[in-house]
Amino acid sequence: MPGLAPAYNDRNINPSTRMDHNLYAFSIIRDRAPVTWPNSARVALAVVINVDFGDLIPEGGSAAAIPLREWSHRDYGARVGIFRLMQILDDLDIKATVPINDAVLKRSPAVVSQALDRGWELAGHGAKANMAISSAMSEEAEWAYITSSYAAIKRETGVAPRGWLGPAMTESSRTPFMLAKAGFDYTLDWGNDDQPYDFLAPEGKLTALPYSPDTSDAVYIGAANHTAWEFEDQLKDHFDTIYAEGASTGMTMTLGLQAHVSGQPFRSKYIRSFLEYTRTKADVWYATGSEVVDAYRAENH
Amino acid sequence: MLSDPQRYVYSAVNERPPLVFPNGERIAVFIVPNVEYLEYMPPPNPVRPPYQRPAPDIAAFQNRDYGNRVAVWRLFELFDQLGIRATASMNVAVFEHFPQIAEAMAKRDWDYQSHGIYNTRFVLGMDEAEEAEMIHTVNEICKKATGKYLSGWLGPSLTANLATCDLLAAEGIKYCADMFHDDEPTEFIVKSGKLISLPYSVEINSGVALGGQGQTPASFARMIKDQFDVLYAEGATRPKVMAVCLHPYAVTSPSRVKYLRDAIEHIQSHSGVWLTTAGDIADWYYASTFGKRYPVLEAANA
Description:
The complex is a heterodimer.
Chain A: E1 43-50, H1 68-91, E2 96-100, H2 102-107, H3 109-117, E3 121-124, H4 139-157, E4 163-164, H5 175-182, E5 186-187, E6 197-198, E7 207-208, H6 217-223, H7 228-245, E8 251-258, H8 259-262, H9 265-279, E9 284-286, H10 289-299
Parallel strand pairs in A: 1-2, 1-8, 1-9, 2-3, 4-5, 5-7
Antiparallel strand pairs in A: 6-7
Helix pairs in contact in A: 1-9, 4-5, 7-9
Chain B: E1 27-35, H1 58-82, E2 87-90, H2 93-97, H3 99-107, E3 111-114, H4 128-146, E4 152-153, H5 164-171, E5 175-176, E6 186-187, E7 196-197, H6 206-212, H7 217-234, E8 240-246, H8 248-251, H9 257-268, E9 273-276, H10 278-288, H11 295-301
Parallel strand pairs in B: 1-2, 1-8, 1-9, 2-3, 3-4, 4-5, 5-7
Antiparallel strand pairs in B: 6-7
């Protein structure tokens, strides 16, 4: 179909961000002033455990093939997997951040109470796993979606959430600024750095806590089909590089887990093993998402 | 129906005169980091959607953005330590968005292969005049940003049209990397001028192996080493050309950089290796070999 391609030469370079959007500015990691973590830690390591719930038959879906297998497998996370991971983190004295679907708050209250008992942090994760943000949503619908999650966590826990991780790693082009306006302080949707950075939100203030696809079980195990021991190798390799580079500037690493995936018995031992490995190193700061973002803002920006 | 683009003649690999590299090396290796920019909200293309998911596809966008903010800088450091001069496969809009990347490459005297303007702007759906203008524009952007014209061409996101080879030859591009039919340079049949093919790879390629195939970083390093070992052995009697096709976001992310180092150090530990750029291989080929190797092709061009 000759002549039908879009014009090739209409490059859209925002003069202040250098990107083709106005969400955040380009920045080269090696050109930045050093980031300083509490106690001069090299690495701020945030363990993030997603607890999800999805409808068995979504609104408008077909009842012809009931996906009980997928539905119940996911529900394992809120019944079993999260508590196995809690035990591991208790043993290693590490606090986690839990992106939690609104539906889990009421359905699985023990997840909430036991997380809060430990001083863990809950983060917004949208209504349900099968209801993701998309560009097809109206602005009003997206605003209602984001603010409902914010209100639900505040209502159920008495504490407003500060972090956000959208279900299924989706956003519209409005999402980051909308999160800031709704009151969220940081987002885990963006994995494009090894240090936090700030969005340029006109209302509110939103920081990215980079959530690397390389250290996420959704990507490395879910999408790429690697084994649990390959995931452990990958996590150690990632950590080693970040730790070495952390000698000159504070770096971040997120460990992105899903309770129903990494909370499976056979996988959990590799998560334990990885975290035990990091515990043999000095200068690692185990922090919740909010703690990392607060330190980043207070000491550096 | 079109069964054959008629761009090259058939030639069995074991019936050609062996290549003779400048210092009698067994293998020429060129290393190609693809430095890319996927637009946040690209315009639709009628032939192929820019993204597999609706835009903004933040997962795909942020990979390349990680490359430009973080991983390519780690790659510069690694290549400086190893003494590698690379052939950058560029979405040339990167040079305009981020002149620091152009400066860093120019300082290291890298070689450049075009990968179009953006990896979300395919040549699919372009007519010849528009594609010719685009190729020229890309060449001029590269010259302005780095001081050097492109030595070769790799279509944006590996897209090409039937006339692309003619248009590249008319622009004075030395080689095209869009076809994967050989382990040695071959000669394309073009309307006017000259154009050769250098063997780029869709196998020894981090976008493929670490992307769609989901190999581990250790497996990808092993693939590079295995490919090298076989070609190196064959190169004792018939010298070969090998490309190592990389994407910084995929190969110099924290978990992967040590495996890339290991693979390159394996190559460097051998004697008789010409570790160079694609442009240098193309220049050597034109100076020493072009027109002398494929008698059938000479007849076709006569």
